Amino acid sequence: MLGNLADPMLYMLGLGYGLGAMLPEVGGLPYIAFLAAGTVCSSTMMSASFESMYSSFSRMHVQRTWDAIMNAPVLLEDVVVGEAVWSASKAFMSGTAVFLVAAALGLVASPLGLWVLPVVFLTGLAFASMGLVMTSLSPSYDFFMYYFTLAITPMMLASGVFFPLEQLPGWLQAAAQALPLTHAVALARPLMNGEVPASAGLNVLVLLAYAIVGLTVALLLARRRLMT
User: Fold this and answer.
1) The pTM is what?
2) Exposure of 203 by Cβ count < 10 A (0-12 exposed, 13-18 middle, 19+ buried)?
3) DSSP code string of 134-151
4) Rounded-to-10 torsion of CA 180, 183, 189, 190
5) DSSP class of residue 30?
């Protein structure tokens, strides 16, 4: 928990109070309030990704825990779904910890902000499912660096975590609408600031789609890897 909390807290407090002191309002909000919602979502993304890749890969490939479990009357589907739900649960704890710190700093404007908590879990499930796809493909731990470098880091910069999407070029704004983190932030930011998200249904559907498709693909790849 401490490891998952330290990084987002440095971003939120360092940038929010440091850089924020030199900025006017961003998106109609003080910069630290703008950043807090993005930090909750990015923390959830990072925690779910690390758990569903590094830890799950250890259990699948190094420790052979998956093989041991499947000696019991348990299906591979149960193992993969269990990994996804555990990764989402751990990400939920990390995201909730950042949310509670934000609330203690007065950055949650109303009780409506509590709806961020199910958003955090759904976000964690979406990224856990994507992480398990990488786990099922990976030959070693080093492989995960490609995913973090080519997918996770650009997503943090292009999903409205640190600055409004409107500042991006038009083509990049359009591309960002396909990213799950964009939809997580689009839900969390208005909720933490006492507003109902404008496209909540669409945002939830996109996150659900990533979770369902990711789990399906991860299961197919895991079956091909472990059962052949």
Assistant:
1) 0.91
2) buried
3) HHHH-SSGGGHHHHIIII
4) -160
5) -
Three-class secondary structure of residue 193 per DSSP: coil
Based on the number of CB atoms within 10 Å of its own CB, is 225 exposed (0-12), middle (13-18) or buried (19 or more)? Answer: middle
Write out the residue range of the structural domain in which residue 79 sits: 2-226
- 223 and 80 Cβ atoms separated by less than 8 Å: no
Angle of helix 200-226 relative to helix 116-137, nearest 10 degrees, comes to: 30
- Total structural domains within the chain: 1
The angle, 0 to 180 degrees and rounded to 10, between the axes of the packed helices 180-192 and 200-226 is 140
Q: Tell me how many helices (H) and strands (E) the chain has.
A: 11, 0
Q: What is the pLDDT of residues 118-165, one digit of tens each?
A: 999 999 999 999 999 999 999 999 999 999 999 999 999 999 998 889
Burial class (CB in 10 A: 0-12, 13-18, 19+), 218: buried
DSSP3 helix / strand / coil % (the chain, rounded to 5):
80, 0, 20
Measured N-to-C along each axis, helices 2-10 and 31-50 cross at an angle, to the nearest 10 degrees, of: 150
